[in-house]
Design goal:
single chain; three-stranded antiparallel β-sheet
């Protein structure tokens, strides 16, 4: 009897030690995550302007790509001010526009407020949102923020498959999952567990993008006519939303780039499809900005690339400060030209 009690005590003590050790490990890991690479906890955006947003004033740390500590504004977006009233330019996009890799005052939204002082820019760029998500969110964003002049969607990829274009046209784009409560929400609040969660969701996102890139709508004669037709339907639909609200839609495109063997900057996209999108945008009164020539000029003058950071890989990854300066300058120039 005594031996049984003794064995039970040993087992309980061993389990307790394992639990304590696990909690200490989780605490230590979370501490380093908070210092090095903490992405925060996102919640559902009930307005639909984005699929989700960050908790108000969310703390973020980024040393894996760029170096920055920051807090999001009180609405859960990356702006110097939480004031979202009297917006003239509503800036949308994905992680490039969220721009947590460097101080907020250097991102495209803040720079636009400097370059166009007579216009108020508010940035709702949100990590994980591709062009199809932004197009899907467009109407709700216009309703939520009532911009006076422009809605600008920045993207690094306009190569949308016909299947995804149909989803945008028909309002069937699947929303990016997020949680306001429950077990997953609580677990995400633990920094070390959030890293694991983000790795899993990023893997799913990468797999999805790979599947999208494999969906080629090109036949032996080039881009399929049905894909072009659906593209036009989508752009016409979104341009109409903006026109009904007396604003203009701007599509700002910074293509992926690489340095060729001859040392010149080259673009890494489908030239035929890019031209197709540009022509369709022109047809429906959408301002399309292609930032490549500006990036090429910058590289020829300074050898600076718009993508990448010194502690990661130059030429790839997210837009850096140079990239954001180029995007902001090109948007400002397009708006000034539009206003005449």
């Amino acid at each position: 009897m005594n031996n049984r009690c003794w064995n039970t005590t040993i087992v309980i003590k061993g389990i307790a030690e394992w639990i304590i050790a696990g909690l200490i490990s989780l605490l230590i890991s979370s501490f380093f995550v908070l210092i090095y690479n903490y992405s925060g906890t996102h919640i559902i955006n009930l307005s639909g302007a984005t699929d989700y947003k960050w908790v108000a004033g969310q703390y973020k740390a980024q040393w894996a790509e760029g170096i920055n500590y920051m807090h999001m504004d009180e609405n859960g977006f990356n702006n110097l001010s939480s004031d979202d009233e009297n917006v003239d330019i509503l800036l949308m996009g994905g992680s490039h526009m969220e721009a947590i890799q460097f101080p907020t005052e250097y991102n495209a939204g803040s720079l636009l407020n400097e370059y166009l002082p007579d216009y108020r820019t508010y940035n709702i760029g949100m990590s994980g949102h591709q062009l199809i998500n932004c197009l899907d969110n467009l109407e709700a964003a216009v309703v939520e923020y009532s911009p006076n002049g422009y809605v600008v969607i920045e993207t690094d990829n306009i190569d949308i498959s016909e299947e995804d274009l149909v989803c945008v046209r028909d309002g069937l784009v699947p929303h990016i999952p997020s949680y306001d409560s429950g077990l997953l929400y609580q677990l995400q609040r633990v920094p070390a567990l959030k890293v694991v969660y983000k790795q899993l969701t990023d893997k799913l996102s990468i797999d999805r993008l790979m599947r999208m890139s494999d969906k080629t709508d090109v036949d032996t004669d080039g881009i399929s006519s049905s894909r072009i037709e659906v593209l036009k339907e989508v752009l016409n639909q979104k341009a109409a939303v903006c026109s009904d609200n007396n604003i203009r839609l701007v599509l700002c495109y910074m293509p992926h780039i690489y340095v060729g063997e001859d040392g010149k900057l080259e673009r890494d996209d489908d030239a035929e499809w890019t031209e197709t999108v540009r022509n369709a945008a022109d047809e429906y009164g959408i301002i399309m900005i292609d930032c490549f020539e500006a990036a090429k000029t910058e590289y020829e003058n300074t050898y600076a690339l718009p993508y990448g950071f010194n502690n990661s890989t130059m030429g790839s990854g997210h837009l850096n400060m140079v990239g954001h300066e180029i995007v902001a300058r090109e948007i400002a120039k397009a708006i000034e030209e539009d206003k005449g």
